[in-house]
Structure formats: structure tokens, C-alpha cells
Specification:
Helices cover 15% and strands 26% of the residues. It is α+β, with helices and mostly antiparallel strands. It is rod-shaped and about 140 Å long. The protein has four domains: 54 residues, no CATH class; 59 residues, Complement Module, domain 1, CATH 2.10.70.10; 66 residues, Complement Module, domain 1 (Ribbon); 52 residues, Ribbon (Complement Module, domain 1), CATH 2.10.70. It contains three helices and 21 strands. Strand 20 and strand 21 form a beta hairpin. The longest helix is centred in the first third of the chain and has 17 residues. The strands form nine sheets. A four-stranded antiparallel sheet has the order 17-19-20-21, with no helix packed on it. The structure holds 2-acetamido-2-deoxy-beta-D-glucopyranose. The site of 2-acetamido-2-deoxy-beta-D-glucopyranose (NAG) has 3 residues, from loops.
Length: 246
């Protein structure tokens, strides 16, 4: 009775000291004497120590850093612990579980979760601006706009002193406003030509692509022949192609 109680106490102690749940081998030998019992205990302890899976608690290194997601643990984890990954804001899951397990061999099990940025779609059209992106863009992508031909940067735009024509794809799948403004090139007031009259109605400041129509005063050289002036890129009128002779 004394012997078996002591034996159990020793084995229990050995097991606890190991800090794991290695199974205690059952006592099968016939307890012939105290000496043989002690030898048996020593052998048992030695076997437990040398057994790779039982000698130490398997420990997994801190959960690996994976792009676009975060794990709920930052430090090493002991077998059979787990850690759970969740997608960062602005990223969506592929629907696979984000749990990995610290395995007996001290390696993490495979992670099946994949997180990808939400799509903001193709960048929107902005008046007077252009970009060269034709494919949908995902968070945290950006697109750079520049002024379309016939437009120029509004240097008086207080919203954008830096003049960066950038729009960002946000976490909530929307585009930021472009911090830049492009305004149409202007050619100024319609020019006057001797012997010609300006036809139709017009406004003072002629803009890019707008046309002005002139005719010779008194219909010379022949009525129905027009001179056309176009406001071009950069705010320059085209050359007058009509010649009036008296
Ligand atoms: C998206 O997020 C931005 C920045 O947090 C916010 O200003 C905007 O109102 C949001 N848009 C929508 C549709 O939720």
C-alpha cells in the first residue's frame, strides 16, 4: 500500500514536472521488492524524458504575419493552442476559416484564409480630367488624374494647393474626391478683323472647341462664305482663313 501510493505520487510528479499531458505508463510489473520498483520508476522517467513528443511541451513561434490580416495572438503558443486571423479593414475574406492550430511537432497548421482588398471599380470620370486605368482597382489603390487636352489646372483652387490629382480607393469601396481641378482653356474675347462682321450670338470669353463665324462686311467676296475661328488647346484661336477685298 505504501509502495503503490508512493509510486503513483512519483509518476504524477514526473508528469506534472514535464508540464504536459504525456500518458503515464501503467504499472504492470509485479512489485517484488522496493529496489526493483525504484529501478522501474527510473526507467520510466528516462523513457518519458527521451521521448521527443513527451519530453517538452511543443511550442509554436508567434503566429506568422500574413498580409491583409491580423491574428488574435502575438506571442508563441503551446500545443494544442490555436490562433484566429481576421481580415483587416478594407479586405474581404475568401470564406475559408481563419483558425490555425499549434501542432504536436511545433509547427502551425496551414492557414486557408485569404484576404483581398475590396474593389472600388474602375475610377470614375471627372470633368476635364483623364486617367489611364481601364481595370477595376482594389483598396488601397490609387489613381492619378491629369488635365484633359483643352483643360488646365486651376491654380486658384484652394482645395488643392499641392496640385496632386490623386483619388484613393477607400476601405468602404468608394473613391475620394480628386484633390485637383481642371478648368477649360479660354481664348478670350472674339477678335475683330477689318472688313468683317461676327455672325450669330456669342459670349465674351470664348472657350476651348467653341467656334466663331465671320463674314465679309457687305457680303464680299460672296455671301455665304464664312471665316471660322476655333478656340484651340492652350487658349489660342486658329488662323482666320477668310480674306475680304473691297
Ligand atoms: C466612406 O468612407 C469615407 C471615409 O471614411 C467617408 O467619408 C464616406 O462617407 C464613406 N462613404 C460611404 C458611402 O460610406
Amino acid at each position: 500500500m505504501w509502495i503503490s501510493t508512493t509510486l503513483i505520487a512519483i509518476l504524477l510528479h514526473a508528469n506534472v514536472a514535464n508540464g504536459n499531458s504525456c500518458p503515464v505508463e501503467p504499472i504492470l510489473e509485479k512489485l517484488t521488492s522496493l529496489d526493483s520498483l525504484l529501478v522501474g520508476i527510473e526507467e520510466r522517467l528516462a523513457r518519458m524524458e527521451s521521448s521527443s513528443q513527451c519530453s517538452r511541451v511543443a511550442t509554436c513561434v508567434a503566429p506568422p504575419v500574413v498580409a491583409n490580416m491580423r491574428s488574435d495572438k502575438r506571442y508563441e503558443v503551446e500545443y494544442p493552442g490555436t490562433t484566429t486571423y481576421k481580415c483587416d479593414k478594407g479586405y474581404i475574406s475568401n470564406g475559408e476559416p481563419g483558425v490555425i492550430k499549434c501542432q504536436k511537432n511545433g509547427e502551425w497548421s496551414r492557414l486557408f484564409l485569404v484576404c483581398t482588398g475590396v474593389s472600388c471599380g474602375v475610377p470614375p470620370e471627372v470633368y476635364g480630367m483623364k486617367h489611364d486605368v481601364t481595370e477595376p482597382v482594389s483598396f488601397p489603390g490609387t489613381v492619378t488624374y491629369s488635365c484633359e487636352p483643352g483643360f488646365h489646372e486651376n491654380e486658384n483652387n484652394l482645395l488643392s494647393p499641392s496640385g496632386q490629382g490623386i483619388s484613393r480607393c477607400l476601405e468602404n469601396a468608394t473613391w475620394t474626391h480628386v484633390e485637383k481641378e481642371c478648368i477649360v482653356d479660354e481664348c478670350g474675347d472674339p477678335p475683330k478683323f477689318p472688313g468683317m462682321v461676327l455672325l450669330g450670338s456669342y459670349h465674351r470669353n470664348v472657350r476651348f472647341t467653341e467656334n466663331l463665324y465671320y463674314q465679309c462686311d457687305g457680303g464680299f467676296p460672296s455671301s455665304g462664305e464664312y471665316g471660322v475661328l476655333t478656340c484651340q488647346e492652350g487658349g489660342i484661336f486658329s488662323d482666320m482663313n477668310l480674306i475680304c477685298t473691297n
